[in-house]
Amino acid sequence: MPPDACQQPAQHSRLLRLYSALFYAGSSFVITVVNKTMIATLVVLYAAKMSKTVQFQDFDRTIPLKIFPLPLLYVGNHITGLASTKKLSLPMFTVLRKFTILMTMILEVFILRKTFSKRLVYSVVAIVFGAMVAASSDLAFDVEAYSFILLNDAFTAASGVYTKKKLGTEGLGKYGLLFYNALLLVIPTLLASAYTGDLHMALTFEDWVEAPFVFCFLTSCFMGFVLMYSIVLCSYYNSALTTTVVGAIKVRTRRWEYCFETESTGTA
């Protein structure tokens, strides 16, 4: 398989754009029952590179500069995301995530020098206006929680736009972007897990000897890789805005799933 092209064509076919978006939406929905992991990404892509199934640039001193600032945006996205979900209800979290769409559009204009039709701009403004109306009825207004979710929106938007930009970097491509982003994050993540005690709890977990748990864990790891690959693939064939909108649809689907769960269990 030849290396990923450094410069993307101006336009991809509609089928590729549609299928990549559906792939991201499906993977993103399935991942609601599993966790993402960077180690799985490293193992899968390294094995694929060694077997010459995929090709990407070998590591050198230019890689961190080529990847920057994606690792920082990834960490910021996860920290603010966890902080906001702890303080906000799922419905309000879903509503405020709509601001990511507007932020993505603005960043695409300034960073990628992209232009949008008036009809598309009006559609995005309508979505954000609806989110503002819904948020105005929140009786449990929490400044800290709102700050975290808006920061999370900004990190998500910036990550999507810079992912699109970095996909055109010479020698990197889809697979190199995934692999080296995970590589630069895995050691700091392990150190942070050791510091907080999460790593010790994981290593001493008693169900490691249970086959069903190990199977579910490995499935979780693989689906983590599939999700991250689907995001990059969707960004490669579509705009960063399309990827963001697909992510917003996924969040809405998760909200419907939550409603069905609470209805079936009889909880509010």
TrEMBL record:
Membrane topology value: Multi-pass membrane protein
Organism: Cyclopterus lumpus (Lumpsucker)
UniProt keywords, alphabetically: Membrane, Transmembrane, Transmembrane helix
Primary location class: membrane
Localisation: Membrane
Alphabetized InterPro entries for the sequence: TPT_transporter (IPR050186)
Superkingdom per UniProt: Eukaryota
Transmembrane feature ranges: 21-48, 95-113, 120-139, 145-163, 175-196, 211-232
Stated name of the protein: Solute carrier family 35 member D2
Gene Ontology cellular component terms for the protein in this record: membrane
